[in-house]
Amino acid sequence: LFCRFLLVLFSSSSVGGEQISSIGRGLCVLLGISLEDTQRELEHMVRKILNLRVFEDESGKHWSKSVMDKQYEVLCVSQFTLQCILKGNKPDYHMAMPTEQAEGFYNNFLEQLRKAYKPELIKDGKFGAYMQVHIQNDGPVTIELESPAATVDPKQLTKLEKQQQRKEKTRTKVPSESSRERNAPRSKDDPSASSGAEGDVSSEREP
């Protein structure tokens, strides 16, 4: 899970010009769900969002209070583009969880937030819709959170990643023929061996 959240004075989300959700002061959470995410990552992110101390206390001291301490609102927006990987200048989203799975995961995320906090203070947009998100940033303060790396299921690796892994294993286990030839000791009778004045070819750096 990759999350970017902003401290806001006001935030709202609209679909087709119609406002569907809004909050006052609090957090606007942009959430990117990846293929590898599980319940473990979800629970970690819920705890962090609700407990991170990013607000000031009663005396004005910054970085002292969480959104729960202040009883502020949270507006969540699912944003698969946070899982973007650039291929040259073209964005690639193959690491984002497919829509069919991601919707259930996102709804579970909202449910866990509401259970851990106050349901009426957790708002959300419309999953899968083309939304216009209006954010009045406070500060501005924007913080990025990423859940601890999960163990990757080999089935989820792309064909290219699998090929790369095989190549790396081969390089580690089997030295190339040319490497064996370069590293092999040369006998004094070997006519191809260089003289001591020129230096031993076998010790030269590879191109």
CATH topology group: D-tyrosyl-trna(Tyr) Deacylase, Chain: A
Overall domain count: 1
Which superfamily, in CATH terms, is the homologous superfamily?
A: D-tyrosyl-tRNA(Tyr) deacylase
Strand residues, percent: 25-35%
- Label the CATH architecture: 3-Layer(bba) Sandwich
Distance between the termini: 42 Å
Mean pLDDT value? 83
Number of helices: 5
Q: Which CATH C-level class is it? A: Alpha Beta
| Unreliably modeled segments | 191-207
Number of strands: 8
Major sheet description? 6 strands, mixed
Query: Could you state the oligomeric state of the chains shown?
Result: single chain
- Gross geometry: globular
Radius of gyration: 27 Å
The string of secondary-structure elements, in order, is: EEEHHEEEHEEHH
Instruction: Give the structural class.
Output: alpha/beta
DSSP helix fraction: 25-40%
Family: Belongs to the DTD family.
Main location: cytoplasm
Keywords: Cytoplasm, Hydrolase, RNA-binding, Signal, tRNA-binding
Catalytic activity: a D-aminoacyl-tRNA + H2O = a tRNA + a D-alpha-amino acid + H(+); glycyl-tRNA(Ala) + H2O = tRNA(Ala) + glycine + H(+)
